[in-house]
Amino acid sequence: MIRYALVCATGHEFEGWFGSSSDYDDQAARGLVNCPVCGARDVKKQIMAPAVAGTKRQDSSDMAPQMREMMMQAQQAVRAHVEDHFDYVGDAFAKEARAIHEGRSEERGIYGEASAKEVTALIEDGVRVAPLPPAPPKKEELN
After folding, report:
1. Model-wide pTM > 0.85
2. Is residue 72 predicted with pLDDT exceeding 90?
3. What's the chain's average pLDDT?
4. What share of the chain is helix, strand, coil (3-state, %, to 5)?
5. Which of 18, 39, 36, 35 is nearest to 27 (CA)?
């Protein structure tokens, strides 16, 4: 596993874990790496110091895969809840989110698509938005 410090085009900094550097390159090229804050797909690696392994023996309980599975299940549950209970507005998301924020449309949960520029404008104007967790990968897309 390799950890990269990443930054999106709007300046949000976050970390990403990948099986190898080629996994990052492949996923980034296919548009699968996006900012967890604004959803932007224009993501770049930041310069970072290499991690040097210590000499202490690590616990063999192997909690990392269990934690990863737990996080994946939680993300899938959030996505399923949104898809089941919120209104899908497609590419009209930014327009409808702004209308709800300004009181011109009924207050309700919505989800849909928006460009990074639209999301940035919504955030700057105080409209509360968050990226939807990604759908689970299809088996044919896994490496």
Report:
1. no
2. no
3. 85
4. 35, 15, 45
5. 18
